């Protein structure tokens, strides 16, 4: 199954479960993608956040049902994932500009968002340099935060800025003295969480390789030995573009798929070449 087919399978799953229980993990499975990568990948490829697509489609279908059936508002709300009349009415009014009760009246002017038809054209604007390496396992320690996927590129820089001001950044640099011989000599941003779930949130840990028990107040992370594709962003501002090109250009044309292992942003000390790296865990197709 190629890249486009996998994304179409994910859309099929989402559309089949708009009414009733919808699992982001199952949607990711249909796409052949680890759950914590899927919302980010979906957003880059479709230019709409996954949660927003689901919200629009559910409220579109809910409006159809209110107009075409005699179901009560609360029954329609529960069918489309809303746990209360108030929550459903608020979301419905935000999208359609009127209450569910008003929408059931003849002549109501509503909005309809169609099912996403997935056809992807891969465009290589410029060459994308990378290397593939198998790295040994290592341990790290750091400060874990929950980050909203849709706001990652504003939240993450603020986390690093705060850490540099409150002394946690210096603590991470101190840990590098006991990093162990197999670990990179870099401060790390570790993206993990396995299941981003309905909140569209993932774990982002400001970390450093550390060969001992994690200090008090820090979380311990075990990075397994694995195969990685490694990119070298030109600077901090280029990380977002590198993530986007990973999903829209490199993966669709490669012989690899994403692996369910934390991804790592490496920030090396001044004078190191390269200054920054993005490590993405991969597996060969068909594994």
Provide the domain count: 2
> Helix coverage percent of residues?
25-40%
Let me know the CATH homologous superfamily of the largest domain: Regulatory factor, effector binding domain
- Name the helix and strand elements from N-terminus to C-terminus, one letter apiece: HHHHHHHEEHHEEEEHEEE
Number of strands: 9
What does this structure look like?
This protein starts with a helix and ends with a strand. It is built from ten helices and nine strands. The protein is elongated, with a radius of gyration of 22 Å. By secondary structure, the protein is α+β, with helices and mostly antiparallel strands. 38% of the residues lie in helices and 21% in strands. Strands 1, 2, 3, 4, 5, 6, 7, 8 and 9 form a nine-stranded antiparallel β-sheet that branches. The protein has two domains: 3-103, Homeodomain-like (Arc Repressor Mutant, subunit A, Orthogonal Bundle); 131-284, Alpha-Beta Barrel (Multidrug-efflux Transporter 1 Regulator Bmrr, Chain A).
List the helices and strands and how they pair.
Layout: H1 3-16, H2 24-30, H3 38-46, H4 50-68, H5 73-79, H6 85-96, H7 100-103, E1 131-135, E2 138-148, H8 152-166, H9 168-175, E3 187-192, E4 201-209, E5 219-223, E6 226-231, H10 239-253, E7 256-258, E8 263-267, E9 276-284
Antiparallel strand pairs: 1-6, 2-4, 2-5, 3-4, 3-8, 6-9, 7-9, 8-9
Helix pairs in contact: 1-2
Observed structural traits:
Arc Repressor Mutant, subunit A, 287 residues, elongated, alpha+beta, Multidrug-efflux Transporter 1 Regulator Bmrr, Chain A, 9 strands, 9-stranded antiparallel β-sheet, 10 helices, 2 domains
């Amino acid at each position: 199954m190629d890249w486009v087919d996998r994304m179409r399978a994910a859309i099929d799953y989402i559309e089949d479960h708009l009414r009733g229980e919808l699992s982001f993990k199952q949607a990711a499975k249909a796409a052949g993608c680890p759950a914590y990568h899927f919302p980010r990948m979906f957003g880059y490829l479709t230019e709409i956040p996954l949660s927003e697509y689901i919200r629009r489609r559910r409220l579109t279908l809910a409006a159809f049902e209110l107009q075409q059936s005699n179901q009560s508002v609360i029954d329609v709300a529960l069918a489309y994932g809303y746990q209360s009349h108030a929550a459903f009415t608020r979301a419905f009014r935000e999208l359609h500009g009127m209450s569910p009760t008003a929408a059931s009246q003849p002549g109501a002017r509503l909005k309809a968002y169609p099912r996403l038809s997935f056809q992807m054209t891969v465009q290589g604007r410029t060459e994308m340099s990378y290397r593939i390496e198998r790295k040994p396992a290592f341990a790290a320690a750091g400060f874990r935060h929950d980050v909203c996927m849709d706001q990652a590129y504003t939240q993450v820089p603020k986390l690093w800025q705060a850490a540099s001001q409150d002394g946690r950044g210096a603590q991470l640099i101190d840990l590098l003295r006991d990093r162990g011989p197999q670990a990179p000599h870099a401060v790390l941003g570790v993206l993990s969480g396995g299941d981003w779930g309905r909140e569209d949130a993932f774990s982002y840990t400001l970390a450093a390789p550390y060969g001992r028990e994690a200090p008090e107040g820090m979380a311990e992370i075990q990075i397994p030995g694995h195969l990685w594709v490694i990119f070298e962003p030109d600077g901090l501002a280029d990380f977002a573009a590198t993530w986007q090109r990973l999903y829209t250009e490199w993966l669709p044309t490669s012989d690899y798929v994403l692996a369910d292992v934390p991804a790592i942003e490496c920030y090396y000390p001044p004078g190191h070449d390269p200054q920054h790296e993005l490590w993405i865990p991969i597996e060969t197709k068909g594994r």
